[in-house]
Amino acid sequence: MLALRYRISTFAFAVAVFLPSLGQPIAAQQHLSAPRADGQSTPLMLYLPAKPRTGCAPLAVISHGAGGSENGYRYLAQAMAHLGYTTVVMGHAESGLAALRADMLRYGIMEGVTELVADPNAEKARLLDTGAALQWANDRCRAPFRVLLGHSMGAETVMLEAGAKNIIGVASPPAGQDRFDAYVALSPEGPGVVFDGDAWSGIRKPMLILTGTRDQSLKGGPQTRLVPWHVLPGGIFQCQWMGVIDDATHMNFAGDGLGSDKVEPLVTQTIAAFLPGARKHACTLPSALSGMTLQAK
Predict the structure, then answer these.
(1) Which pick of 23, 140, 188, 225 has the fewest CB atoms within 10 Å?
(2) Strands 30-35 and 41-47: what pairing?
(3) Residue span of the signal peptide, if any (predicted)?
């Protein structure tokens, strides 16, 4: 049944990938491009802080999942801007829509997703995109606090940037540079495809992991997405949290009309509770939120 539910969920994702969007165009404040270290360019969608401020605002960089683009994750970007962050959503050309379509047509739905997620060249390019986004931001104003957020393959990028060991041959650099002050991983993959069972033991920065009780993984069921948090070393000043949202599926975290109206508020509320403590290295769990369990270590 787990495999069947995963196939159904993945089929729904494939329909969303292959059919044109039926929704309204996504409005963002500015579409930009940043030069990458290898001579390529990284598209960025910029969201400015909701309220003007003096001095340099904190920075949020968002990494989309396989098949996504800088036009997605509007709910997350707008929430970060509302919290006062200069926010950029990166576009990852080597693991965007065209790359996912090609792998699905060649290997099939599940196998195509797995092929892209485990592609070391695609992940190296994502980390170069991350460096481009950081350099673009630094050239304008060096933020006092920087957070990297990602969903699905974007959560893989988050983990690799933070220092998780991988089994697909992505060396450091570009992996393991740990250039952010905190990390948020939505639906991170557990061991088996990209990471081994001990991959996250060296991550000591603040880390928030969010998943759902129906969040199927590429290898194993929803329980495998809990493994990264259990392996994180924790510690009183580490601020390493895990939230599990009741009945949430993998694509619910992607936003943009994919059945996420109940999930999005829990995601953004938890991030809003996590980041102030992460900035002070003094994290205290908030009062229980209805519809999810939240733990700290």
Answers:
(1) 23
(2) antiparallel
(3) 1-23
